[in-house]
Each structure stands twice: as C-alpha cells, then as structure tokens.
Amino acid sequence: MAVTERTVRNKRNSAGELTGKAGTVYDVNVKYKSGGKSKTYSRKGFLTKKDALQHEAEMKAKLTNPAYTPPSAVQRKMTVQEYMTEWIDRHGSANLRPSTEASYRSHMKNHIFPYIGDVFLNQLSPAMLDDMYRQLAEKGLSQSSVKYAHRIMGVSLEHARRYHYISSNPARDILTKFGKQSKTPDPYTVDQMRQLLAVVMGTEWELIVVLGGLYGLRLSEIIGLRWRNVDLAENTFGVVEQLPFNTPANTTVISEMAPVKSSERTLPITPLVRPYFERHLELQKEQKRFAKQSGNLYFDNDLVFAKPNGSPKRRERISANFGQLLRHAEMPHIRFHDLRHTAATNMHQLTGDFYTVGQILGHSLKGIGIQLQLSNNLEAVTAQYVDVRMERKLYVLNIYHEAVLGSSEKT
Fold first, then answer.
1. β-pair partners for 32
2. What are phi and psi of 253, to 5 degrees?
3. C-alpha count within 13 angstroms, C-beta hemisphere, residue 101
4. Which of 43, 148, 163, 405 could, after both became Cys, cross-link 272 (CB 3.0–4.6 A)?
5. Between these two residues, 385 and 282, which has the higher pLDDT value?
6. pTM summary value
7. Where along the chain do its domains lie?
8. Pick from 403, 402, 398, 345: nearest CA to 374
C-alpha cells in the first residue's frame, strides 16, 4: 500500500510539538519511474489518514508529470531556518531594497525562527503556520506584523516550491483570517502642523520637522542632506544623496553617500523657512566650538543633521523619538514618513497643482497621483508642462508655508 500506518511512542500535535503520548501516524510511499529507473517518493508522519491519502493522490499526479522534479535527500533534511537563511542570503540583496531585506531578516530572527526554525522544511504544515500566527498574536504582536510574517513565509515557501524543495506551499492553505488592516493615520492638517511646529520650536527637531512636514522630504534624504548642497545665498538646497541604509550604528565618518530613491531635485528655501536653516547652522557651529574647546573629537561630515560630535544620526532613533515626541505633546500618532503625506496633501489642497507638488516631493506623475488618491490619467500631461520652473515650486511652497508659519512668524 502507498499509505501505511505505524505507532509512535511520542506523537506530535498539529503544531509540530511532541505531546508525550503514543499515537498513530501515516506514511506515504509512492513508487514511480524516472529516467527509466524505479524510484520511491516518501513522506512520513501525517497525523491523519485523510491527509496522507490526499498527499498520496497529489504526488501520484505530480510524479507522472515528466516536468516534475522531486526534492533531493539533502533538501528533505533541510530545516525551515536553514532554508530561509539560505534563501534571504541568495534572494535578498539581488531582489529587495536594503530596508526591506533588513526588515525580512529581523522578522525571521525574532518572529519566525523561534517557533518553526527547527522544523524540517518538507514537514512544515499549514497547521504549524496557523499555530505560529496564533502565538505571535497572543504575545502581543500587532496584526500587521503577524500578517507581515505570513507574507515572508508565503514568498519564501513559494520559492521553495518552485525549486522543488517542497511539493506544495503550506502558506497557501492556512486557516488564519487576517482582518482589515488598521487605518493609515490621517495626514496632519495645516492647523496640526502649526501645532507641531510650536512644540518643536527652538529644539533640534524644528528643521527636521520643517523638511519632513513642509517639504515632504524622506527621512533618509533629511539625514543625508549636506551643507555643500545648501545655498543660502541663492535660497535653494539640493536633494541629491542620502545616507547608505546599512550604515553601522557606531559610524563616525561617512566615506560615501548613496543616491536618492527618486530623481535628484533642487528646492527653494522660502523666506519663512530660511530662519530655521540659519538657527540650525548656528547651533552646529556652537557644537563645533564646544568640541574644540573641550578637546573632544568632532567628525565633520558636512551633514546638516548630525550628533553633537558630527557623526551621522540614526534613522531608527529619529523614528522612535518622533513617536515619543508626539505622545508627550498629546498629538495624534503618525509615523515620521506620514509627514511626507502631510506635505503632499496640504500643498495639493491649497494649490490644486498636483504636478508641481510631485516635483517637490520627487514623485513621478503616477506616484503623486497614487499618494493623493487621484484617479485621473496623469500620464496624459503633455511635454510643455514637464519643465516645472523654480518659480512655480516657490509659489506652491510659499502658499503652504504661509498657511502654517505665517501667523507664528509675525507674532
């Protein structure tokens, strides 16, 4: 018979855990021919006869398909952790953005391997995945993070199936139902931006918040901004580079910058924003003087935003501290990146000029349309509108900055 039963002293449950009790399991053995030779496909330890028979039927159909290649003996002995580590090493850098790869690795280490890392890849079942997701939720992990873990499992296991390491992708057959994602926080209104800037006025946060919330710069672009790209004589600054994503935590000297995610762009410094640049420049000069007087090293990387010793700031630390800042100010929670959405939304609502807004943010027409949830055929804009003049950017930014900063700067 292709399906046989046997008694084991310590049977596993559906989550792959040993129960300490004896029980019956079912093994599948399917004979087939490959290359004119007789071979046997085996998979052992099914908890129910129904599952074993279903797997037998699936494998018989696949093994009679000349295009099917069964897993090798080495692949059948590979654990989930061994496979996924090999997979991310091979697949990550070539196919994922550095931030996504780092996020995948963190989730695998903290939320996947502790639960199913030692399970053999070919023995991983939908029930084991369901149990892992349940335990993650019970541990207090947010639904979005649990769903993200499932996304990683789905992608990596689908690759394993295509490599013929496993016959099917267990992530496709889970019973866990993920509810609707929590609502993306609404962007701050003009009034809320005014309130936030009042909170950070006179602190090291003020110019960071201005560039994020009034210009829509990405955090990586902000902490990668260098003074050589700021022209206070011409009242412009260039977004042309960013800090490399994988900069080590204790880095003091930046030897090379990375290109920006979107196209390079030059933006005007409005009259209402110029004082923020000037105050920040004076603050940094004071930090340099203090370091020299105290005999401490100052690492001059020419960064607009740096630690008191000149070394680069960490984006993770800024993101975490931004959340604390909002809690202390009793303001609605948003991520730092949501300041970019705030700038896009407010500029568009005040001016209706989606194309100039997109140029300010470094978006394509399609990108800004998606961000602002516009369904128009934006690609139909003709070539005569493509060259947005600096004057138009200044016009749009002036309207927005006057709405947020006008009254506070006059008082």
1. 39
2. -125, 130
3. 15
4. 405
5. 282
6. 0.61
7. 3-70, 76-173, 190-249+257-281+314-410
8. 345
Distance of alpha carbon 143 from alpha carbon 136, whole angstroms: 9
Tell me what the mean pLDDT of segment 207-224 comes to: 96
pLDDT at position 379: 46
**By C-alpha distance, which of 141, 88, 133, 138 is closest to 115?**
133
Within 8 A by CB and 6+ apart from 71, the residues are 122, 164, 165, 166, 167
Helix axes 338-351, 354-361, angle to 10 degrees: 150
Cβ–Cβ under 8 Å, residues 361 and 355? no
User: Which positions ≥6 away from 298 have C-beta within 8 Å?
Assistant: 287, 288, 291, 292, 309, 310
Which pLDDT belongs to residue 44? 80
**3-state SS string for the chain:** CCEEEEEECCCECCCCCECCCCEEEEEEEEEEEECCEEEEEEEEEECCHHHHHHHHHHHHHHHCCCCCCCCCHHHHCCEHHHHHHHHHHHHHHHHCCHHHHHHHHHHHHHHHHHHHCCCEHHHCCHHHHHHHHHHHHHCCCCHHHHHHHHHHHHHHHHHHHHCCCCCCCHHHHCCCCCCCCCCCCCCCCHHHHHHHHHHHCCCCCHHHHHHHHCCCCCHHHHHCCEHHHEECCCCEEEECCECCCCCCCCCCCCCCCECCCCCCEEEECCCCCHHHHHHHHHHHHHHHHHHHHHCCCCCCCCECCECCCCCECCHHHHHHHHHHHHHHCCCCCCCCCHHHHHHHHHHHHHHCCHHHHHHHHCCCHHHHHHHCCCCCCHHHCCHHHCCCCHHHHHHHHHHHHHHHHHHHHHC
How many CB atoms are located within 10 Å of the residue 69 CB?
11
| Nearest to 91, CA basis, from 294, 72, 83, 31 | 83
Q: Which strands make up the sheet holding 37-46, listed edge to edge?
A: 3-8, 23-34, 37-46
CB of 156 closer than 8 Å to CB of 108: no
Fold of 190-249+257-281+314-410: hpI Integrase; Chain A (1.10.443)
The residue with greater pLDDT, 291 or 52, is 291
User: What's the pLDDT tens digit per position in 43-86?
Assistant: 888 888 888 888 888 778 777 766 555 555 545 578 999 999 99
Q: Which fold has domain 76-173?
A: DNA polymerase; domain 1 (1.10.150)
For strand 236-239 and strand 265-268, is the pairing parallel, antiparallel, or unpaired?
antiparallel
